[in-house]
Amino acid sequence: MEAKSHIKVRNLNVYYGSAHILKDITIDIPEKKITAIIGPSGCGKTTLLKCFNRLIDLQDNVMLTGQVFVDDTDIFDNSTEVIQLRKKMGLLFQKPQILPMSIYDNVAYGPRIHGLKNNKKLSEIVQHYLQEVSLWEEVKDRLHDSAARLSVGQQQRLCLARGLANEPEIVLGDEPTYALDPISAEKIEKKFLELRKNYTIVLVTHILRQAKRLADYVVFLYLGNLIEQGPAEEVFSNPRDSKTQSYLSGQFITSA
Amino acid sequence: MNRRRFKDLIVQRIMFILCCFVISILFFIVMGLFYKASPILAIHSLRDLLFSSTWHPSKGNFGLGLFIVSTLWVTAIAIVIAIPLSLLTAIYLTEYAPKRMREVLKPLIDLLAGISPVIYGVWGIIAIVPLISDYVMPFFSERLTFFPFLSDNYTGYSALAGGIVLSVMVFPIIISVIHEVLETVPFEIREASLALGATKWETTRRVVLKKARPGIVAAFILGLTRAFGETMAVLMVAGCSLHGFPKSVFDTAYPLPALIANTYGEMMSIPLYDSAVLLAAFILLLMTTLFNMVAWGILLHIERKER
Questions:
Q1: Fewer CB within 10 Å: C terminus or N terminus of chain B?
Q2: Which DSSP helix (H) or strand (E) runs through A16?
Q3: For residue A168, what is the domain's CATH number?
Q4: B271-298: per-residue pLDDT in tens?
């Protein structure tokens, strides 16, 4: 399990107003592995994810201390280009967030805003990434229809294709199967396992079985505290902390 | 039947009757106008009435063309000025302004909407009319001597003045509606766009505005129909002379509502005069309705395409 860490979090604290959301978090996220961030609702999983691509900047009244390094650059440093940072990461939301345009334009959106104008190249990119997420066969005859007409499962795969078309190094998933039926969810999960070869994947989930199926590395958060992190087999088979034990076995955490 | 159910029934009936009453007012206005306007339609051809610009009630000439064209001119100028102004202001308020600032600016803009039209008229006379006659018009007619800037009206009371005052009157409502429409665009799709590395402006232009487009069109229509019927302020600054069609933005304009307000009730006993003025009112009503319907047609079309 000796992998280079792709994202390093050092003593990260996040406050929304007076609420202390993340408390002194230090994590190493290994390169080209699937890291699952698990924990009950409201433990700060999504906030942590939004720190990585600095979507947290959009929140009002937020305060941060500590550091996050991506590829060894401090992302909160003033000299860091947020646009370049975000381009490095594809993000999947709980519910697929398709843009109000055609299927084709959704996938081409990233390359276009980053300056690609050549239509032939764009078409190649669109086809390639739609194939990558196994959506091509389903939509190839209606690429210029509104993406809103797709099923939710198809939409989420479209969002994945859109993220990948940006050629990121990291894929962030914020409970990406939350709104999906089991079959669509399985498609996304299998896709993640394939993507692991080429991308670092950070997956926020509160589905334990999903974490067990996918994760190489597990981070367990509880009420903004980092309780435990480590390789998946270790954490799942032999959790060190009693809170992790309770959570994994489905018991109440506070009584433990 | 017990008393509570009886009360319920009574209240329901009363509200139904009041509702019918409100709707019937619209019906009676339309019918009344048409009935009163019909004598002149029986004598003069509709073509003459609509397209002739000769308005000489004492000689029996009732051409409404001048007033119709003036209405279109003034409204067009107002909307051309108001569209960029209100759209960009609304975008700034919704997407860029810090929360604090938004909380201060929004009520101020709403306040503008509540000011009496007469005040706008006075403001037009004091500020806009001299500005046009002393600076804008000399500049344009000396440097850019082509249509539609050439005019022999040097007073400043003009279609342009009317348009400017109107645009200021309609933009608070347009801003309000656009602001509300933009707020309905889910925050998450902004995040989705930003997460792909788009800038705020790219996100606004390509995603937010696109999603909000039907609503924005509706906002403009709302402003347009308001501008159409606005009377007092325009009457005060547009010049309202019977010079013939306005050919330049600096020519005087005499919109329909101004005609009605100026003449109705002071027609003495010239035959058909009141019928002609009420025909003007009827036309105004029709034009407003027509614009509304066209707008809703566009809206429905866009909505269906988006889906």
A1: N
A2: strand A5-16
A3: 3.40.50.300
A4: 888 888 899 999 899 888 887 887 777 7
